[in-house]
Amino acid sequence: MPPTETTPSAKGSAPAVSAGVASETVVSMYQAQKKIYARAVSGWFAGWRWALVWATQLVFYGLPWLEWNSRQAVLFDLGARRFYIFGLVLYPQDFIYLTGLLIVAAYSLFLFTAVAGRLWCGYACPQTVYTEIFMWVERKLEGDRAQRMRLDASPWGANKLARKGGKQLVWIAIGLWTGFTFVGYFTPIRDLAVAASTLGFGPWEWFWICFYGFATYGNAGWMREQVCKYMCPYARFQSAMFDKDTLIITYDAERGEPRGPRGKKADPKAAKLGHCVDCNLCVQVCPTGIDIRKGLQYECIGCAACIDVCNGVMERMDYPQGLIRYDTQNGMAQHLNRSQLLRRALRPRVLVYASVLVLILGALGTSLALRSPFKVDVVRDRGALARLVEDGWVENVYRLQLMNTTERVQRYRIRAGGLDGLRTDLGDTVIAVDPAQARWVPVAARVAPEVAAAAGRGSHPIEFTVERLVDTPADAPKSLVEHSTFVVPR
Fold it and tell me: What value, to the nearest 5°, has the Cα angle with vertex 22 and ends 21 and 23?
């Protein structure tokens, strides 16, 4: 038997061992990850990224505190099954609007990705936004890249403990405040704030504040690029939405290679060098730790930090900016100018996405504008489908749910039809429903014996007409017709 051989293995992997067959190896399925120390960067795209951080967080943290008609402007009251969005009052029956909103979000993502790659990931994704916030805290308390590396390599002491501990406390505070705000969309946030003063939250409020806070703290503070690289499915299927005319972050190898260091006054042509000075700053600022000079990689989230830092280096070297830039594969190969790139952006798939998106938005807007100010559900009494009452009349009992979708008191009148002589026990009774409330109204519908005999045994279609009574000339009269059945017993 040949002797067992041990071959060198890659760092972070188990030793490769072969027994009997010299080429047989054991490969570890786990690869150790090196911590990424992203360097701070400033520039045009960094400014846009921070503008979106401010915009998204002002909306997220600020919306629950806004008032509208003496109530919280945006509140999803799951207990009462009411969803308040400024002037809109939605019921579970309005689920179609949530479906439409999700379709709009999906087509928007397809459109933006087809035009300019991972814009959502690089600028507005919550993972990116909170990672930027947490990294800003980290830089303020521990310093920039080189200082953080030295701090991590140094032995533990009072200074290191204070900086590390302070960072963790701020991170935890941001996470808990984020969880508190999230719950504030489902429980009135002012009531939640009062409960917070005594830690008097309910069990579900405790769970969701801690869960959402821990998720924010863990994802933005610790996992960071691991979420984008391994947990987010978008990184995996984004290439299906790319084509050769999609704007992506690209390195101009034709201009940059061969790369190499040189002085500012050196002539790159004489030195037979490209414009890339091989400073490695594009790698140091990348939040996922990739080298964009190796080409587009699925880990790239399109944040454009490498563009900002490279443009700064080019400016200091008196070279033209744009060694790393937004460009397309066709643009790089054919040396297209900006106007040519923009013209090619209006290609069929982009026009299709945009057209479908406009149609869906138009349909949603029209539906909301024409939305009825009330809704009606008819439920039969299952306990007694039909019964005989005085003088041989046949009676069926129903319950009508009247849902007021406005924030004013509304008044209604209910009538029944579909069978000759069908009448209800309500008569001309006017029913009032409070603002944004629902009311169950029991209704007994009856027909005379001769009508029942003429109709025959079994179920017969009938309809309930609910008429909205107007109080002012500005209100438009509205009626809803709901269908049901009337049962004549054997």
Answer: 95
